[in-house]
Amino acid sequence: MSAKNTAVRYGTVAMTLHWLIALLIIGNLCSGIFLANIMDDDNPLHFTFIQMHKSIGLTVLMLSVLRLLWRLVNPVPPLPPGMSLPLRIAARGTHYLFYFLIIAIPLSGWAWASSSTTGIPTFYFGLFQWPNIPFLADLPHGAKIANSHMFHGYHVYLAYSTAVLLVLHVGAALYHHYQRRDEVLKRMWPGARVEGRTS
Fold this sequence. Notes:
Layout lengths: L11 H26 L8 H28 L11 H30 L7 E3 L3 E3 L3 H4 L3 H40 L19
Antiparallel strand pairs: 1-2
Helix pairs in contact: 1-2, 2-3, 3-5
């Protein structure tokens, strides 16, 4: 299988980034809900979970930027034949929205952490201290409080939006596979045989 995308399927680089980012985002959505609604702040493991959540989010940010750059130099396979214009617009629009969200969610989390007044650093998987965004971290105390609330709100809304979009994305993939019986799902599925029909 080619590392680059072809006219009939995604290459190993795009495929690996797609599934890795998907798993990390799903895991972080679950951990975010757990931290916000289940785990108490005074739990001894709270700090560890927060650090892990932030580390995974920063990993998603780096991988997402890499995926976007790879996407810019590797055209995606064309949509299957027979798709109506509204379906084509929805498919492309969903992909663009995903690219925005997988970068905006961790970026908003980083901005939230950088605006925190607690002074608690971010340790990337315990290996080193991740820097805050300077122009946010250096603001006066009052401005940091306002920004912290703002970026926290962005982070939460973007996360829930991603959860909804994920459900729609999975539903659309299953619709293509079982209802339309085309190769949209197969061309992103490792090891799946693609017949090579293009639009």
